[in-house]
């Protein structure tokens, strides 16, 4: 083989090698172009930041959750008084209370009530300090004379008499004693209230329910 033929083959081989190198370079460029870009520090920071949530609702404070005390929730003397009268009158069928006395220092029998039955017979009823337990039910004498006139003239009940007198003593006063009396030819309820060391007496017409003196 002559030298010219050898040179031609050598040049051809170099050309093929150069073409192959160019082809490989092009492939590498395409692969790099399709790779996902690496996130920047700014993008990562945004993703990591927590989302703030706001609401109009506010947690209740201690003051909001406290139950306010109102005058409606404050027990008055009338509340216990009326309960005790119901118990006493319920102890003797068809009876009406004519006297009431409260003495918290008088042992377990704190309430003493006199009731009169349908035959005008008086009964002495004692009730425990709890206001619901009867500890004594003793029959007394039959009413006559002024006592009978007092009872027959009392068309206003003992409970209604105390309600009428309440305005003269105030809501915080406790009913201490109630008596039915005969004064100036008519039946009169005398109601005594206590508010601490203050004592108030009110007289109520037992026929009309009007306050007649204080």
TrEMBL record:
Residues 82-128, 156-213 form the PepSY domain. Pfam families: PepSY (PF03413). The keyword Magnesium does not apply. Residues 1-28 form the signal peptide. Residues 30-81 are annotated as: Disordered. Residues 30-48 have a biased composition (Polar residues). Residues 49-76 have a biased composition (Low complexity). The keyword Hydrolase does not apply. Keywords: Signal. This is PepSY domain-containing protein.
């Amino acid at each position: 083989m002559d030298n010219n033929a050898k040179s031609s083959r050598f040049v051809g081989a170099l050309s093929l090698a150069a073409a192959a190198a160019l082809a490989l370079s092009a492939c590498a460029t395409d692969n790099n172009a399709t790779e996902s870009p690496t996130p920047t520090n700014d993008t990562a920071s945004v993703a990591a930041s927590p989302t703030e949530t706001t609401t109009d609702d506010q947690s209740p404070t201690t003051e909001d959750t406290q139950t306010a005390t109102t005058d409606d929730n404050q027990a008055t003397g009338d509340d216990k008084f009326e309960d005790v009268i119901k118990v006493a009158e319920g102890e003797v069928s068809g009876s009406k209370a004519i006297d009431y006395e409260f003495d918290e220092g008088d042992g377990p029998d704190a309430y003493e009530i006199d009731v009169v039955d349908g035959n005008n017979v008086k009964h002495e009823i004692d009730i425990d300090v709890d206001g619901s337990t009867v500890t004594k039910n003793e029959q007394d004498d039959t009413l006559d004379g002024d006592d009978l006139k007092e009872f027959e003239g009392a068309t206003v009940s003992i409970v209604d008499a105390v309600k009428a007198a309440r305005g003269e003593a105030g809501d915080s006063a406790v009913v201490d004693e109630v008596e039915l009396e005969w004064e100036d030819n008519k039946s009169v309820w005398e109601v005594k209230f206590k508010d601490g060391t203050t004592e108030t007496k009110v007289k109520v017409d037992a026929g009309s329910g009007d306050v007649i003196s204080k």
